[in-house]
Design a protein that fits this description.
This protein is an alpha/beta fold. The protein folds into 2 domains: 213 residues, Rossmann fold (3-Layer(aba) Sandwich), CATH 3.40.50.720; 38 residues, no CATH class. Helices cover 46% and strands 14% of the residues. The protein contains 9 helices and 7 strands, in the order E-H-E-H-E-H-E-H-H-E-H-E-H-H-H-E. The protein has a 7-stranded parallel β-sheet with strand order 3-2-1-4-5-6-7, sandwiched between helices. The protein is globular, with a radius of gyration of 18 Å. It starts with 11 loop residues before the first strand and ends in a 7-residue tail after the last strand.
Length: 271
Amino acid sequence: MTAVPNRHADKIAIVTGAGQGIGAGVAKRLAHEGATVVIAEFNAANAEQVAGEVNGLAYPIDISDTAQIEQMVADVVARYGKIDILVNNAGINKTQSMMDVSPDDYDRVVDVNQRGLFFCLQAVAKQMIAQVPDDVKQAGRAERSYGKIVNFSSIAGRSGRPYAAQYSAAKWAVISITQSAALFLAPYNINVNAVCPGVVPTPMWDDIDRTQAQRFGLQQGDWIKSTIEKVPLKRAATPDDLAAAVSFLCSDDADYITGQTLNVDGGIEMN
């Protein structure tokens, strides 16, 4: 998909979970369009690799740790002076029967996908508000956007999943968090939206396919193949498909869009 030159020139962006898969694709797209990107990633080696590719900043972090989130925001502001974009992409999944989910299984998925996302949004939003001129704050409305936040939900956040119940619950919550944040940040014209990916061949989907193939007695690759065949557009998504949507939502073209959740799934979900 064609990038838009200088679309994000002079912008500072944080992308969580940007060391591989969709997050790496988003980081590369934003950088290609002019942004300076912070690769906020649990795996330090992956963070360094992607940061090198985009001439960005590798920032190893456990997004479930609020103290690390606060430190990241402070470090980014100290280095660059501001934050213009946050893409909350970091996520984990564990495919298992709903009856087999332990409290630890549940908490780990929620800690990253829901709680970590919320507190990362909160910390960055505080900084974005601090960047808004006082006269705009006093007026209670803004003529232009003072920040863009995009949260990653999932098609699993649109309907239940018997073999990923805790993941589905967390991703449903992301949609609610997105709407709440959009309402709270509207007076500052800080736009908050979400995207729901469908089937994207990434390491996470490789794990899902492996687990489901074992569960249903299939050859590895058969389960995801049959899943892709049910997509109305008859193909899986690529990280570039998601990156294009995120880049748009982070651009000036999306200044009048907030509180929305966009399915980028080839038509799997249509709500």
